[in-house]
């Protein structure tokens, strides 16, 4: 397979997202194995302020247009498709965030490409890279190979280390103004409601999460208290979100946030596959559960069995004493 | 108003890992005999979204699927929640489909049975979790698509939809026809009712002619090859905190975690 490796990321207020260094890391490893250049393509109302050369890029193309300040699928497609056709890449990497999930299929279609999503491991190869992703809620993983190139790949956030810093490499952004004037986007963003928990959850050092076993929204007050003592953030399983106990921004799991904290304290969470796929990256997993047979105990490093209403307040009180607060 | 919902039958997504094994040649992940086959979770949410629009506007709801001929029975059962009719584009049992092949065939089925004002899919299938088919079907049909929609509000020729974004919710407006992939937060699963189950027996399940869509063979439609599956190793040693009372277990847990520098 010939052609460069391309990574794409949005730019907001001249800042690149945290996922872009991860994509550059993955892209660098693919590019080095194949002996091809790594091109970073950014979309936004501005070019990135930082030089992406030291983070791994050989070349940076900044698609800059006032209408690219907010992601709109039709505008992103109109900006990216002609540029990517010119670059003729072997692989296009996007983050598997909610922009990547919206963009990957129409972009692959527009390029006549293949697509592989939610990739957690990349296997560089001089001939043709392979891509590994979890399936069936994380109980197994599949290794996939494109039959059609290029392949558009979404990479799971936090799954890839950044590239070795290369302070000597510089890649000044080549600013390109895409022709968007004739594009009447078919969707219009009328409002954005930010839920602060969402970002904090992904970056949290400690996550205290609740599930079906909490029995209702009231018990989340106890989780708030535990999170306050441990300097953590509260999360939830899909059942708790679907039951309306907490907003969807709390959801940890394959379809919510993928977290990899130092400590994940799971309260009343049975351990459904799709939830565990979101927290299996935790360094230490602790379960408080009534059921000694709950599947979560197969993943937990520590467990206390019984009623969380009795265990958790005692845990919080003792943790407060031990931590001197 | 005509709404189509694309639905897939999958092995129970809650079935434990011990019920699955990798085929000897590594090329398939096989559910054991005890594993139930169900509608994919997010497709159930998409059906619920369609049925709520039907309740509100009198829309006609069609379930559409691609797969082996025995899906006809699955579709008839699925009509028990209240959809009006179903269509199956059959492929020979054992046919391997990827997202591109599936989307090509679903688009053919939607063209044959449409036109539709709105096409709904689950945000991702519960077995592959890829989330590609919806966006590919939209592209194949030339429709705008929005991925991971939590809520749909219908206002004449326009829709207002709430889409999940990384730091919250984005509200979008778009014109019909369109395709949306649906998430579960605000569309709980609707269960079949006896009157609907009885009514489903007389509803139409159309088995479409797949010969044109499959003219080049399913293999020619695929763009991705699965080289192999491996079971994920997840089991870890669990230290269960034992104590005379639950309160004591809570205190001991804090002490153990503190002693090991975890809290």
Molecular structure report:
- The complex is a heterodimer of chains A (325) and B (263).
- By secondary structure, chain A is of the alpha/beta class.
- Chain A has eight helices and 16 strands.
- In chain A, the strands form three sheets. Chain A has a seven-stranded parallel β-sheet, with helices on both faces.
- In chain A, strand 12, helix 5 and strand 13 form a beta-alpha-beta unit.
- Chain A is elongated and about 65 Å long.
- The relative contact order of chain A is 0.12.
- With 263 residues, chain B is α/β, with parallel strands linked by helices.
- In chain B, the strands form three sheets. A nine-stranded mixed β-sheet of chain B has the order 11-10-9-12-8-1-6-7-13.
- In chain B, strand 3 and strand 4 form a beta hairpin.
- The longest helix of chain B has 17 residues.
- At the A-B interface, helix 3, strand 5, strand 7, strand 8 and strand 11 of A face helix 3, helix 4, strand 9, strand 10 and strand 11 of B.
- Strand 8 of chain A pairs antiparallel with strand 14 of chain B, so a sheet runs across the interface.
Helix content of chain A: 25-40%
Strand content of chain A: 25-35%
* Intertermini distance of chain A: 59 Å
Rounded to the nearest angstrom, the radius of gyration of chain A is 22 Å
Largest beta-sheet characterization of chain B: 9 strands, mixed
Radius of gyration of chain B: 22 Å
Number of helices of chain A: 8
